[in-house]
Structure formats: structure tokens, C-alpha cells
Amino acid sequence: MVRVREGAYDCDVLVIGGGIVGLSTAYAITRAAPGTRVTVLEKEPGPARHQTGRNSGVIHSGVYYRPGSLKARFAVRGAAEMVKFCAEYGIAHAVTGKLIVATERDELPRLHALVQRGRENGIQVRELGAAQIGEYEPEVRGLAAIHVGTTGVCDFVGVARQLARASGAEIRYGARVIRVDRRPERGVAVLTAAGDVVRGRVLVNCAGLHCDEVARLTGDEPGVRIVPFRGEYYELARPELVRGLVYPVPDPAFPFLGVHLTRGIDGGVHIGPNAVPALAREGYGWGVVRPGELAGTVAWPGSWVMARRHWRYGAGELRRSVSKGAFLTAVRRLVPAVEEADLVRAPAGVRAQAVLRDGTLVDDFLIREGSRAVHVLNAPSPAATASLPIGREIGRRALDMLGAL
């Protein structure tokens, strides 16, 4: 057992996780309280290797999220701040706007509800008839659409690297945490796989796909289980078919946005993701299976409830995973000109989705506190967009803990 020794702190705040949320937290803490010593432990050899670096690169407007929720407040604020941050530091970005397109009549009420939700969140939304869609996207077909002008794209990995540099924190890469000793009267000591011991006054858990495991190592029961969902992408061989960002109308019962088309900062167009259960927390393909992690998912009661409740939706996602033709059908609902030869496999991502014991998929960001610890237990999309205000919120909680010691 690694022990905390009084008066032998390596840092004031010890952050586990070098994705965009962990690095934004370090940045926020040193900005708010200069002189605070922050150490970030990241198990990979560099930053942003998982959720941050394996997504569509979209700066979300906040149009989807329940008014008053953390996602709504932080995404709307974070989108504006992210554009400003990228401009300040010369990070590649563009404010492109996006279309959300209804292709079936039963989607029209949901599209209208998004208009109302967007306006409640303070977002300008333009409603379009079928004939007006071509003003923005000549190859897109639909019954109606909305245009959201504040949506954009950026290089989130570049943002994470800049946050690491600007934070002034000590960033330790290749530092996988295997044990945590938390003493409420003293502090927190962490043992890494390399045999290093790092001691801090307060722990911040931004471990993403492993955040519930880190919470349990700390001695706090998170009350959720991270169930990994793989998002599979294709690249469009004819990127000229799409000018910007094109999305379907999402199903409000799920936190996933459906298969969409995104023109990235490199000019390429990504299509996806679908959402299928991954067989490992970092299961970026069907061939990646970690029996221990899979057993943990299967043993969680919420996994079975979720599967029974949403099996039809899941079956559709699985079909699009194993059948390129089924994936193509989903894409052609939006852009009929896309052919099967236009779809070129691209790297997948994995979403760290928190699931409650009763099978509920946690919809909002989830941040919980323990003694000398702040745990970020659900921060999938739009966490990259919202990372600057999320970092300030986590940083505030960590600094409040420090101030109370």
C-alpha cells in the first residue's frame, strides 16, 4: 500500500487524465490561482489520444441540450470561447454552420422542438423549407431543415496541446495509475505502473473511459458504470458533395446524434459515427476484446436493463456496423448522390457513456465530489466544445477544497 506522508506533497492538485477536460482543468486552476502547483498524469505517451482525438472535431452550438443543463450552458458558452481560443493561439478552426435535416414526416415535430430548444438556449436558428436546403447544401435532400450558424470545426488535439503548454502544469506522460491512497486528513498518493509515487493535496479524476475505475480506486463509489460505445466512421471519397456539416434529426431518447457528414478543417468529409457496444474500453475495432473489462460491463445491472429497453435501436446500429450497405442507406437519406465506392473506412472512436444501475444513460455532464477528490463521471460529446467552462467548474471545486484544508 502506498502511503500519504504529511508535508511531502509533490503538488497541490493532482489531475488524472490528459485529455482536453483534464488539461483544461489544469489551465483553469493555474489561471484562477497562480502559484498553485498542478500535476497531470496521462497514461499515454501524449495528450488527447482517446475521446478528444477521435471525434468529428465539431464545435457544437448547444442546440440539442436541455435548457438549464450543464451541457446546454457549457456548450453555448464553450463554443464561443473555443473559437476565441483557437483564434488567439493560431489553432486551425472554422465556423461553418450546420444543417439538421428532416427526411421523414414523423421527424418534423422533433425538428420543430429543436428550434424551440435552440431559442431557449439563446441560439439563432433559421428554419428552412425543402427548396431552401439547396442554398446551403445542393446535394442534400429533405422535407425541412434548420440552419445553426454558430456550429464549427477545429483541431481539438491542437487545443489540448496548447492547454498543456499554457497551463504551466507538470505533465507526466506514460504514467498509468494503478493504485490510489486517499487520506482525508492528509491528502492523496498515487502509484503509477512505472513505480512512481505522486502525492497531492486534492485529486481531480478526468480519466474518461476509466473514470469510474479511478473513482473506485480512490474509495468513492461512483454509482455509474462506464459502458463504452464505439463510433465507426467513413471518409467521403468525393468531399465536394458536402460543403459543411449535415446532421439528421436525433432521437431524443438517446445521447447519440446519428450518422452525420462533417467537413473537417483538413477539407475532408467524415461520415458517422454509428454507436455500437465496444468489447473493451479502448475497443476501436471488433477485434479488440478485453475479457475483464467486458465482464465488468456485463456484470453491471444497468447494462442488461439498457439492452432490453433499447434493443431495436441497438440492432440498427449493429446492422450499420457490419453492413456497409446499411450504413450507405443511412447516409443516402441525407445525400442521395453518395455511392458505396465513396465510403472509405476511417479510424473509430469510443464514447465513455455513463450508465446508471437502473439502465438510464446519463444525459448530462456528471461531476461528483468525495473527500479531497473531484470525479468527472460523464463527459462525452460535447465535452470538447465545452472544455473551457467545464475546466473552470472542476477547477473551482478543486480550489474550494484546497481553501478548506
For the largest beta-sheet, the strand count, sense and barrel status come to:
9 strands, mixed
Write down the overall geometry: globular
Strand content: 25-35%
N/C terminus separation: 24 Å
- Compute the CA-based radius of gyration: 21 Å
As a percent range, the share of helical residues equals 25-40%
Low-confidence stretches: none
Based on secondary structure, the structural category is alpha+beta
Give the number of DSSP strands. Answer: 20
Structure characterization notes:
Strands 5, 6, 7, 13, 14, 15, 16, 17 and 18 form a 9-stranded mixed sheet that branches. It is built from 11 helices and 20 strands. The protein is α+β, with helices and mostly antiparallel strands. Helices cover 31% and strands 28% of the residues. The mean pLDDT is 95.
Summarize the structure.
The protein is an alpha+beta fold.
Draw up the topology in text.
Blueprint: E1 11-16, H1 20-32, E2 38-42, E3 58-59, H2 70-89, E4 93-95, E5 98-102, H3 108-120, E6 125-129, H4 133-136, E7 144-148, E8 152-154, H5 156-167, E9 170-173, E10 177-183, E11 187-192, E12 197-205, H6 211-218, E13 224-236, E14 245-248, E15 260-263, E16 269-272, E17 276-277, H7 291-299, H8 301-309, H9 311-322, H10 324-332, E18 343-356, E19 366-370, E20 373-378, H11 387-404
Parallel strand pairs: 1-2, 1-12, 2-9, 5-14, 12-20
Antiparallel strand pairs: 3-8, 4-8, 5-7, 6-7, 10-11, 11-12, 13-16, 13-17, 13-18, 14-15, 15-16, 19-20
Helix pairs in contact: 1-5, 1-11, 2-11, 9-10
